[in-house]
Amino acid sequence: MELVHTKEALKKAINRQKKAGKSIGFVPTMGALHQGHLSLVNEAGKQCGYVVVSIFVNPTQFNDTADLDNYPRDIDGDMALLENTSCELVFAPSANEMYPEKDTRVFDFGQLGEVMEGKHRPGHFNGVAQIVSKLFDAVQPDKAFFGLKDFQQLAIIQNMTAQLGYNIEIVPCNIVREPDGLAMSSRNKRLTTEQRENAALISKTLFEAQKKASDLSIDEIKKWVVSSIDANQHLETEYFDIVDNRTLQSITSWNETVNKTGCIAVYCGDVRLIDNVKF
Question: Can you list the domains of the chain with their CATH numbers?
C-alpha cells in the first residue's frame, strides 16, 4: 500500500494503473476510520481494479471551528486499518495542497441543500462540493463510494456530479452499525462511556418508529420520535424529518411517495450524531 501527499505523486500513481487497464475506485474520507469506512473500501475492491482512499479533514465544510478542531485525527491508526483492506493507495494531502488559494466557488443545489443538514449547517454542503470536486479532479476515478449514513450528502454529491459533468459512477453503500444499532461514525470516538451507552437510543427509536408507521400518521411518528429521544437527559434532537428520497422534501402522508426516509440529527453532549432509516 502506497502513501502519497501531493496531487503530482497521486497522478503518477493513477496513470500507471490506468495504463495497465485498471479501473479506479475511490473512497474519500476525513480519516478516523472505522468499519463503516472499511466496508466502502472493500466494496470498491470488489468493483474496481485499483482502490484509492483519501484522508483529509476538509476545513471548508465545517461551519463550527470547534467541531473542526475537535474532529478526531489518527493517520497511523488509519493506515494500520487500511492494510487489511482492498486499498492500494492512500492520498493524505495538506490543506495547502488542496487549497493553494481560496476556493470561491458557490454551488446551487436548490431545495436539496436547503433542508435538514443544509438548514442547520449553513455552508456545509458547499464545502463538501468544493473538496469532493477537487478530489475527483485529482483522482479521476471510474467509481466513487459513499455511505448512506450521510443520506443528504449522497444526494448532494450525485447532484454535483451531474452539474459538473463528471463521468463517475456514485455508488451508495449501506450503513454499518455497532452491535447495539448505533450508526458507525468517527464522531462516536468523542463520546464518553455514558454518552455512548445512551446514544444507542437513537437507532433503537428509529427502528421502533418503522414498526409504528402502520398505525400512526407521519406527524404522530415525528412527535413520538422526538419526544422519545429528548426524554433521555443525554440526548437532544436537532431535527427529525421524513422526506421523499428524490427531492428530500418533507412529506405529510405515507402514500405521498413510495420511497421515503426518516432523517435525524441528535446532540449527545456536544457531539452531533446523524442517522436515517427507510420507511
Answer: 2-173 (3.40.50.620), 186-272 (3.30.1300.10)
Catalytic site residue from 37, 120, 124, 234: 37
Q: What is the pLDDT of residue 64?
A: 85
What is the distance between the alpha carbons of residues 243 and 262, in angstroms, rounded to a whole number? 6
Angle between helices 193-212 and 218-230 (to 10 degrees): 160
* d(C-alpha 115, C-alpha 125), whole Å: 11
Q: Judge contact between 160 and 168, C-beta under 8 A.
A: no
Please say whether the beta carbons of 31 and 122 come within 8 A: no
Which pLDDT tens digit goes with each residue over 231-246? 999 999 999 999 999 9
- Is the pTM higher than 0.70? The answer reads yes
Catalytic (active site) residue 37: yes
Q: Determine phi and psi for 52, rounding to 5 degrees.
A: -115, 135
In order, the DSSP letters of 35-85 are HHHHHHHHHHHHH-SEEEEEE---GGG-S-HHHHHHS---HHHHHHHHTTS
C-alpha cell at 133: 470536486
Helix ranges restricted to H, the chain: 7-19, 35-47, 65-70, 75-82, 95-98, 117-120, 124-139, 151-163, 193-212, 218-230
Q: How does DSSP classify residue 199?
A: H
Please enumerate in sequence order all residues whose Cβ is within 8 A of that of 40, keeping only pairs 6 or more positions apart, or say none. Answer: 27, 145, 146, 147, 173
d(CA 43, CA 208): 29
Listed residue (174, 173, 171, 205) closest to 273, CA to CA: 205
Distance of alpha carbon 145 from alpha carbon 86, whole angstroms: 13
